[in-house]
Amino acid sequence: MSLLIIAGPAGVGKGTVVARLLENDPSFTLSVSATTRAPRPGEVDGVHYHFISKAEFESLIGQNQLLEYAVVHGDNYYGTLLNELTRAEANDQTLVVEIDLQGARQVKAIIPAAISVFINPPSWEELENRLRNRATETEVQIQTRLGTARDEIAAAGEFDYQVTNTEIDQCVDQIIELVQKEDRGS
Ligand code: 5GP
């Protein structure tokens, strides 16, 4: 079983890095998380997330169907479904979980063999620019994400690897390389 944890602050480009990773290498498959947050324009249920109610989420917790879960940015539940692991295993693929710091810590504690990668922004200013330019959040939400980002970046040293997303292809190549290196056991 292979598991790749990708974390990093909001706005760092995790989604783009992961999408490119999956495009470039079919041995990776994305874990579709469950969340109680509302879909953003263009997001598709079952593709980007399983969008569910708080009651449904709490029932998943009660039935032990989550590998990990957390309340992210103080308002919504997000969690990794155990059956995503089963699916990846059955297809002999590496499951990519794109999760927050709390989730990354939980997964690493449960599955120590998981490879954890933290994506850093080239600079704090650049992160702030990217977050503002994507224009999907209100100013209050941006401030919350910047606060979380500060804490997450401070914990980057807990991860097995850190990469910097200065240039997307370079960042993806680095991740593929380090997973291959781990697979070779070196
Ligand atoms: P967004 O709402 O912008 O899609 O995601 C907000 C944050 O939730 C991101 O940091 C993302 O990595 C994190 N996240 C997404 N899915 C999961 C999950 O299943 N578990 C945890 N712990 N965090 C998640």
Structure report:
- The longest helix has 16 residues, at 139-154.
- It contains 7 helices and 9 strands, in the order βαβββαββαβαβααβα.
- Strand 5 (66-72) and strand 6 form a beta hairpin.
- With 186 residues, it is an alpha/beta fold.
- The chain has a single domain (3-180), classed as P-loop containing nucleotide triphosphate hydrolases (Rossmann fold, 3-Layer(aba) Sandwich).
- The strands form 2 sheets. The chain has a 5-stranded parallel sheet with strand order 2-7-1-8-9, with helices on both faces. A 4-stranded mixed sheet has the order 4-3-6-5.
- Guanosine-5'-monophosphate binds next to strand 5, strand 6 and helix 4.
What are the defining features of this structure?
single chain; 186 residues; alpha/beta; Rossmann fold; 5-stranded parallel β-sheet; 4-stranded mixed β-sheet; 7 helices; 22% strand; binds guanosine-5'-monophosphate
In the CATH hierarchy, the architecture is 3-Layer(aba) Sandwich
SS summary, helix count: 7
User: What is the distance, rounded to the nearest whole angstrom, between the alpha carbons of the first and last residues?
Assistant: 17 Å
* CATH class (first level) name: Alpha Beta
- Strand order across the biggest sheet? 2-7-1-8-9
Report Rg: 16 Å
Strand content of the residues, in percent?
15-25%
Q: Which term fits the overall shape?
A: globular
Contiguous low-pLDDT stretches (5 residues minimum) are none
Biggest β-sheet strands, sense, barrel: 5 strands, parallel
Helix-residue proportion: 40-55%
Bound molecules: guanosine-5'-monophosphate
